[in-house]
Amino acid sequence: MSLAELTRNCFQSGISSSKWLELCKLFISKQELSRSREVTEVDLSNSVLVLCRFYPGDPDLQGYLEHAIHDGSLSIATFVATLLQAARSSELHSPATLDMLCRVALDAHYSSGVSPIGSVVGYNESTITVLGIVQDALALLRTTHSLPLSHFHQLTASASELVILLLSCASDFSQIPTAQAMVYFADANDLLQNFQLAPDVQRVLETFVLSLSLLIGDDVKVAREAQMLHPIPLALGKGSLHGSGSETDIVTFSLFLHHLVFYRAHDFGVGDNQSSIAVLVALFRWTAWSPVVFYTQLFLSAFTCL
Predict the structure, then answer these.
(1) pLDDT digits over 194-226, tens only?
(2) Which residues on adjacent β-strands are paired with residue 236?
(3) Mind giving me the DSSP string for 131-170?
(4) What three-state secondary structure class fits 124?
(5) Global pTM?
């Protein structure tokens, strides 16, 4: 018997969440092969998540997860990671189910009194690992816009909250390979261009995209390789990412101008002349445009922002 089978049998037999968790702990202790706590938590979380595919929004399954988190047998970070991975499956694309699962994670985080680092992600997680989870969260946010609207659930708001919390845990982008940064850039930029997002998550994503664009710089070769390897077209505005393929890119320039004004009293804001000029020069080299086209797009973006 596996942990998933035990959870299924308990649920179908109407066993309470406390009794279910006791049986799970007993089952784990009797296993011949010792497994790490992280692996055990993943198995415990997935044993419930797999049932959510067949019992949308079931309150008993919600109780199982809440009790496991409250007991400490399942960390919030592990649940968030497994939830977002499971949410990529179309079998789990029920507004009632996804909203319920998101609220379990969010309520557990807010009631813990712990900062997002140490709650929705582990203390020792690398930026690359965190951004992998962020990518899953962005996929969920994209999915919420394709599901039927419901007056009884706030799935889009819940998914947006998760994105904001997770992105607050990612700060040091220097260790991200440029090609991988292009993938994250494309995902976030696609959401900004094609979906009507809530203002709070839109601001966070705009800052995220701008940070990645500064990291990417003018490495055109790597950008082209990333575009060939990744199935999502790395597009800005209506054209290609750089240079000869397009002479329009209001999105990137608007984000740049927004950053200058919004962070005017900080580094790389309008008050930091040297850094602002450096970023402007980097953008000019990155686009590979002629000066006429570059400044035309810059002025058009400025008028768009008014």
Answers:
(1) 899 999 999 999 999 988 888 876 444 344 444
(2) 239
(3) HHHHHHHHHHHHHHTTSPP-SS--HHHHHHHHHHHHHTT-
(4) coil
(5) 0.71
